Every structure is written in C-alpha cells, then in structure tokens.
Amino acid sequence: MITFALVVSVGTLVAGIALTLELREAQLSQLVAECVRGLQAEARARQVHLASQVEDTLPDVRCAPTHVQRVLFNLLTNALRHTPSDGSVVVTAHRRAGDLEVSVEDTGVGLTRGAQQRMFERFWRGEQSRTRAGGGAGLGLAIAQGFVEAQGGRLWAENRRDGGARFAFTLPIAERQPAAV
Predict the structure, then answer these.
(1) pTM
(2) Percent of the chain with pLDDT over 90
(3) pLDDT at 128
(4) Phi and psi for 37 in degrees, rounded to 5?
(5) Neighbours of 20 (CB within 10 A)
(6) Residues 170, 101 contacting (CB under 8 angstroms)
(7) Sheet arrangement for strand 165-172
(8) 147-181: per-residue pLDDT in tens?
(9) Burial label, 146 (beta-carbon count in 10 A; 0-12, 13-18, 19+)
(10) CA 49 to each of CA 36, 60, 71, 180: distance values in angstroms, whole numbers, following the listed order
(11) pLDDT at residue 114 in the model
C-alpha cells in the first residue's frame, strides 16, 4: 500500500535529503509473509516459484514496517522480472550479531560487474536486456537503499554461487526492555 508518508519519503530521498523514519518493533516474518502473499499472483503469471523461508521464532526488528515492505516489494518484483519461467525466488532471514539479515535470491542470470557497481545509483538502469519499455525510472534500488540505511541497516547485491542474484539487507534487532517489577 502506498501512503502519503511513503511518497514523501521517496521524494526526500530523490532530492538527496537525509531521511528520518519513525521506528518501532515489528515481527519480520509477518512483514515478509504479507509481501510474498501480495506477489503470488504475479509469480504464478510468470511461472516462477515464490517462497518465504523466514521463521516466526526470529527476534523482532526495530524498523519502519511500511518502508521495509516497500524494500521487499522492490527486491521481489525485480527478482521476479529477471527470473525465467520455472525459476524460483526465495526470501530468507537469519540472525547476525545485533541484526537480522534478510535476503532475496533468484535463479535468474545474475548480475554483471557493471551492474553491481552502479545499481544503487539514482536514475541508473540496467543493460538493455534487463530494461523494458514499461520499466521504471531507475530509482527503485536507490530508494530501497535509502530506506534501509534510514533504519540503521545496509543493502547490497551479489551473485549466487549456483547462478542468479542475491540481494540482502540488515535491520537492527529490537532491544527488549526489562519487565517492570
């Protein structure tokens, strides 16, 4: 769901202004499940298997939930777009020191060195084979990166060992307050 606050956040990032978000505790598995559920129809239409392997037992994260879902939506739609029929896109998450690392992995063609170096630049669009007439403005990954960084995380991309691409980001684990006595 696109809200006014989300539109303002995007405008702030595009203008190159530092973004400040209101963070709260959230369960990552629920955020991922909602996003994956919302993209199942597109995955079926593309004949791509879309799955989440995020455990409910992971600790909560401190984040701006709407912005996390926007990052996931961007990464998942990109992965679906670049994965051939009968391929797969999987979201996973695991604990890493004081963070949770979330990854979106696909079985597509992977990333060129040039794409890896420039893909987070504003207005940069990939090579022609990955660019469509109905493609975007080249802002999706730059916005996703800005959203993740505004929540105290980091976003990066790499090729999978078995082929395809892997986009990953971190979010800080929510600190538990001691129970009042």
Answers:
(1) 0.81
(2) 61
(3) 44
(4) -60, -40
(5) 10
(6) yes
(7) 49-53, 88-96, 99-106, 165-172, 155-159
(8) 999 999 999 999 999 889 999 999 999 986 555 55
(9) buried
(10) 11, 27, 20, 46
(11) 64
